[in-house]
């Protein structure tokens, strides 16, 4: 179709030689980055904590307004400039180069701990492969593991090296190839486990029988119990910060991936596909985890919070007659695929920025970064043993090194970056700078009216509030 042939436009830059082969490769890689432990572990526990269906409803609305705006901005900045965050922001406005550097710092921090979480998942794969599912169900198993210096660092290093290998092989042969295989496999596995979870039934010692379908109802029914304005705002903030993390926005990752897409790819359609993929997996993860926990442990079990995935689920697998070991293995394999494609996107963003700034080739850059981050992962993994600290965080929780890195990058920097980036786009370069890129080659950008309003007015204000709250300055 003639209208879809790419035409050079003033202000659009020539593109990198290496990139995704087409739309499918891009969508799989970007969805690979988006779908990760955030979807599998964080979303279900937030949904359980924040009133089930009510949280889901708010989350969906925010994804298709805020998430859509932030994702569109990042991807369009990447494709229009053909550069990574540091140089991309400098090109948008030289006075705003600091924003590029700030954005670059987010993956730099996230990379110190993401492989550590990947290592935890890998440990559980080994547990289920070797048939030790009763061992994994013991209360102290997880804590014993993360506090053992040797074991926790070993698994973090294994996961780190796996990630490095994929990045070392480049965008097309490494990232795209692995995402095209792992993402569909992951999707099939999660659908299968979710359906299986709905068929579960269990009668406890008190003679109460609970079924997976009842669990589904608990998950989906909005709970307005004890809902006050304050509580509602908290749910809103939880949903908002979850969306950042889940869609991998405002950290330069989608700028880097956007810089790898060809000019004839439909950016708008790709963005919707990525959003559907990411939200779909989050919903399915909830559909799989919440009913299983409900069946075996009742409503009380769902209040486990962050330990849901590593402590409560193994108990559920151990209670399943016969099949538990296999379901456990399938679950953690799927989680490892999801975490690996996310971890790859973080390392790729750091690598690509370094290659661009220092004019060095991919392979030596990856090798140096691998050494640096293997050391960093070891330090963070030792944060539960040798380097154990108890740090009070502004949100009232007590954290170790991993929580500190997570807090600075996700709760503190991301809203701040989104706010500044929205001001830059909305008020300095103008929303049309983005709209033009999405419409490039005659493509349709159906929601551009919504995009303009969101980026100019809504995002800056809400991000400011989110930032003040996470920084502990504003207390709602
Ligand atoms: N989006 C990923 C998830 O939901 O798990 C997590 C993630 C990936 C966060 C990459 C940050 C990141 F840089």
């Amino acid at each position: 179709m003639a209208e879809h042939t790419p035409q050079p436009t003033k202000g659009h830059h020539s593109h990198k030689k290496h990139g995704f082969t087409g739309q499918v490769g891009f969508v799989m890689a970007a969805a690979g980055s988006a779908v990760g432990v955030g979807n599998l572990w964080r979303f279900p526990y937030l949904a359980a904590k924040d009133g089930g269906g009510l949280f889901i409803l708010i989350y969906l609305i925010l994804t298709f307004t805020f998430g859509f705006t932030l994702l569109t901005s990042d991807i369009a900045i990447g494709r229009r400039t053909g550069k990574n965050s540091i140089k991309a922001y400098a090109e948008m406005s030289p006075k705003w180069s600091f924003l590029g550097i700030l954005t670059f710092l987010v993956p730099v921090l996230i990379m110190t701990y993401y492989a550590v979480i990947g290592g935890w998942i890998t440990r559980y794969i080994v547990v289920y492969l070797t048939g030790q599912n009763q061992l994994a169900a013991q209360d102290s198993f997880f804590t014993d593991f993360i506090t053992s210096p040797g074991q926790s660092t070993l698994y973090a290093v294994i996961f780190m090296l796996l990630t490095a290998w994929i990045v070392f092989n480049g965008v097309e042969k490494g990232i795209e190839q692995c995402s095209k295989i792992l993402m569909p496999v992951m999707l099939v596995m999660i659908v299968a486990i979710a359906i299986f979870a709905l068929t579960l039934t269990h009668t406890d010692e008190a003679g109460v029988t609970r079924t997976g379908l009842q669990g589904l109802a608990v998950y989906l029914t909005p709970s307005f119990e004890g809902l006050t304005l304050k509580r509602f705002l908290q749910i809103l903030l939880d949903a908002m910060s979850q969306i950042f993390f889940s869609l991998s926005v405002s950290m330069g990752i989608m700028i880097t991936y956007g810089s790898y897409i060809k000019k004839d790819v439909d950016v708008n359609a790709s963005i919707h596909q990525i959003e559907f993929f990411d939200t779909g997996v989050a919903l399915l993860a909830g559909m799989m985890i919440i009913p299983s926990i409900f069946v075996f442990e009742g409503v009380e079990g769902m209040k486990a919070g962050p330990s849901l995935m590593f402590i409560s689920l193994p108990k559920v697998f151990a209670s399943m007659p016969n099949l538990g070991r296999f379901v456990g293995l399938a679950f953690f394999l799927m989680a490892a695929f999801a975490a690996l494609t996310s971890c790859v996107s973080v390392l790729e963003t750091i690598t690509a920025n370094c290659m661009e700034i220092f004019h060095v080739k991919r392979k030596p850059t990856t090798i140096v970064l691998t050494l640096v981050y293997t050391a960093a992962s070891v330090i963070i993994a030792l944060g539960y043993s040798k380097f154990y600290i108890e740090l009070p965080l502004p949100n009232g929780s007590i954290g170790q090194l991993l929580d500190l890195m997570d807090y600075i990058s996700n709760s503190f920097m991301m809203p701040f970056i989104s706010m500044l980036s929205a001001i830059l786009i909305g008020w300095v370069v103008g929303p049309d700078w983005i709209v033009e890129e999405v419409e490039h080659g005659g493509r349709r950008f159906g929601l551009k009216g919504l995009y303009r309003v969101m980026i100019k007015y809504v995002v800056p204000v809400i991000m400011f509030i989110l930032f003040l709250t996470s920084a502990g300055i504003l207390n709602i």
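The longest helix spans residues 267-301. The pocket of 4-fluoro-L-phenylalanine is lined by residues 33-34, 36-39, 107, 110, 245-246, 248, 251, 253, 342, 345-346 (CB under 6 Å).
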